[in-house]
Design a protein that fits this description.
About 75% of the residues lie in helices and about 0% in strands. The radius of gyration is 20 Å and the shape is elongated. The chain is mainly alpha-helical. It folds into two domains: about 1-105, RNA polymerase sigma factor, region 2, helix turn helix motif (Rna Polymerase Sigma Factor, Chain: A), CATH 1.10.1740.10; about 110-259, Butyryl-CoA Dehydrogenase, subunit A, domain 3 (Up-down Bundle). The longest helix has 21 residues, at about 110-130.
Length: about 260
């Protein structure tokens, strides 16, 4: 195989080719670390996705460390000859490691966790009953709270629903067994098909959001903007951005869960 034409996110330069060839031939720690250094930006990018959460428990360094450990593991297990992007393979492992770490922190207050679960359950029930997305008024009535209280719940659950959304996507990707390692059956054609289908379903879920929800999701996840920055762009309050984000992810989570 010609490593120079292998797609690892982008065309490899001569230095990268030498690094992968060196590691493949001698499996030395030095060669591995050279490769790891080339991809540390993946860890930073993924950690930034949880920025609204780690502010609550002040363990950013621990999250980065978990991501680096997962990146090292990805380099050690990745098989370049299979012709798949390293970034995709590494991102899945890094995201999983960070989610596992956050699960153990118990950083969401119990009352907030309880309200989030109740909201999820009510949304699912009403969606099944009506065969469509329930309105905020309908959700509030089912929860026996006011619409204003519901909006406050949506605002406060921004962090918890972010992690919940990431868990849904990560676990769905794991079930799809994307390609990248010879350690398991990850190279099966079925795995590749499921992974492609998941990406398609995620895109469909985003398309079904209303325009303002799509704007927030795009700015938050693809442009990596902070809530305050999004609020400025959309000329609304930061709390309103949190509400819109939570409502959007609630809808997307329902679609992915049922998929």
């Amino acid at each position: 195989m010609n490593l120079a034409t292998h797609e690892v996110g982008q065309e490899m330069d001569s230095r990268q080719i030498a690094q992968w060839m060196a590691y493949r031939s001698n499996r030395s720690i030095e060669a591995r670390n050279d490769i790891v250094l080339q991809y540390t930006s993946i860890v930073k990018k993924i950690v930034l996705r949880f920025r609204g959460s780690y502010n609550n428990f002040g363990q950013l360094d621990d999250m980065v460390n978990q991501g680096i450990v997962a990146l090292i593991d990805a380099v050690e297990k990745y098989d370049i000859d299979m012709g798949n992007k390293f970034e995709t393979f590494a991102s899945i492992k890094i995201r999983g490691a960070i989610i596992d770490f956050m699960r153990k922190q118990d950083w969401v207050p119990r009352t907030q966790r309880s309200l989030s679960k109740e909201l999820d359950d009510v949304y699912d029930k009403l969606y099944s009953d009506y065969g469509r997305e329930p309105t905020q008024t309908e959700i509030a009535e089912q929860m026996d709270i006011s619409v204003i209280h519901l909006e406050k719940v949506l605002e406060q659950r921004h962090n918890s629903i972010l992690l919940s959304y990431e868990e849904v996507v990560y676990e769905s990707i794991q079930k799809a067994t994307p390609l990248g390692s010879r350690d398991s059956n990850e190279y099966s054609p079925e795995g590749q098909l499921l992974y492609s289908e998941l990406r398609e379903k995620l895109g469909e879920a985003i398309e079904q959001l209303n325009e303002r929800e799509r704007q927030v999701v795009s700015l938050y996840y693809y442009e990596n903007l902070k809530l305050k920055e999004i609020a400025t762009i959309l000329a609304i309050s930061e709390s309103r951005v949190s509400q819109i984000h939570s409502a959007a992810i609630l809808k997307m989570k329902y679609k992915l869960n049922h998929y």
